[in-house]
Specification:
Blueprint (H helix, E strand, L loop, with lengths): L27 H22 L18 E7 L6 H18 L2 E6 L13 H12 L5 E5 L3 E3 L6 H6 L1 H7 L26 E5 L4 E9 L2 H10 L2 H5 L5 H12 L1 H4 L2 E3 L2 H4 L1 E2 L14 E3 L11 H22 L1
Parallel strand pairs: 1-2, 1-3, 5-7, 8-9
Antiparallel strand pairs: 3-6, 4-9, 5-6
Helix pairs in contact: 3-6
Family: Belongs to the glycosyltransferase 34 family.
Pfam families: Glyco_transf_34 (PF05637)
GO biological process, one term: protein N-linked glycosylation
Length: 317
């Protein structure tokens, strides 16, 4: 069998032809890629060098009208109408003298979804912050307390940044006597947003001030986290607050501790934090709704002092 041989190359190859100097035509796919790269570079350059637009979000700055809202949460199911009227009258008289507002609400107006009803006080603070967006401060004052000195405004004795800075207890254990978490040593009065005091066992939540603003809303929402409400702390919202403050530097960094007798003297005849004549607030911490140690019975002593001071002020005027 014979196989055909492949044809041989000619012995006379074609003459050499040099490459054309013309630029070859690019394929359409390459043109698209180059165009996209050019547009991307131009877009990045415009984004980085173009005019900056302001963010659409701006924190609401309260105008300070009113300067302070005095918030009191009352329980008409346990206390008499006459006693609660003495409480509301006390707030309204002081507020009218200094241009503040009062907000009195009922404890059971707020649902706590199975948590102790005392949590309603913190829910009421959230309500006050939304109801008075231009108030500078919300002052939560317990229903079993009386403002004892009408002559001085809150700005004069506490809220002015310079005054507050002179009162602040710095580098102090949050939970006495030896908690390793302490108040900030370098905190300035102008940078505080949460003012309260401390007794011999921990933070006092019967009387505290919150500066209105976005931080206040963040703080209250943190405090009201359902996990804390359902955790079954021994003293409910008070122990929850102590936990939050010690574990959240963002909250601790705005906290100012002041001497207890500045805003929360205990109405009892013992210990250094007991009420003395001239103190601003008397807290009836040991009183009961009824019986020989009832709040109404204990209140008579302080109401008598207020009536005497009012009469003396009228005589001077």
């Amino acid at each position: 069998m014979h196989f055909a041989y492949p044809p041989r190359k000619g012995s006379n190859p074609p003459p050499f032809q040099p490459r054309s100097s013309k630029v070859p035509i690019l394929r359409p796919s390459r043109l698209r890629t180059i165009l996209l790269l050019v547009l991307t570079v131009i877009g990045c350059f415009w984004f980085l060098s173009g005019p900056k637009k302001e963010t659409p979000y701006k924190e609401h700055a309260p105008s300070g009208n009113p300067p302070v809202v005095i918030l009191t949460v009352v329980d008409p199911t346990k206390y008499s109408e006459s006693y609660l009227k003495s409480i509301t009258d006390n707030r309204e008289e002081y507020a009218a003298k200094h241009g503040y507002e009062t907000m009195t609400v009922k404890l059971f107006d707020y649902k706590t979804n199975g948590a102790p009803q005392s949590w309603a006080r913190i829910i009421a603070v959230r309500h006050a912050l939304s109801l008075y967006p231009d108030a500078k401060y919300i002052w939560l004052l317990d229903q079993n307390a009386y403002i004892m000195e009408y002559s001085l405004s809150l700005e004069e004795q506490l809220l002015d940044p310079t005054k507050l800075e002179g009162l602040m207890i710095k580098d102090q254990s949050i939970v006495p006597p030896d908690s390793i978490i302490k108040t900030f040593a370098l905190l300035k009065g102008k940078n505080t947003a949460f003012i309260l005091s401390q007794d011999e066992t921990g933070l006092v939540t019967n009387s505290f001030f919150i500066k209105n603003g976005d931080w206040a809303k963040f703080f209250i929402e943190t405090w009201l986290d359902p996990l804390y409400q359902s955790y079954n702390f021994q003293k409910a919202e008070r122990h929850a607050l102590e936990h939050i403050v010690q574990w959240h530097p963002t909250i601790l960094s705005k906290l100012a501790l002041v001497p207890q007798r500045t805003i929360a003297s205990y109405a009892r005849n013992k210990e250094d934090n007991s009420y003395r004549d001239g103190d601003f607030v008397a807290l009836l911490v040991d009183c009961t709704p009824t019986g020989p140690d009832s709040c109404e019975r204990q209140s008579e002593h302080y109401l008598q002092q207020l009536r005497y001071k009012s009469s003396a002020a009228n005589r001077k005027s």
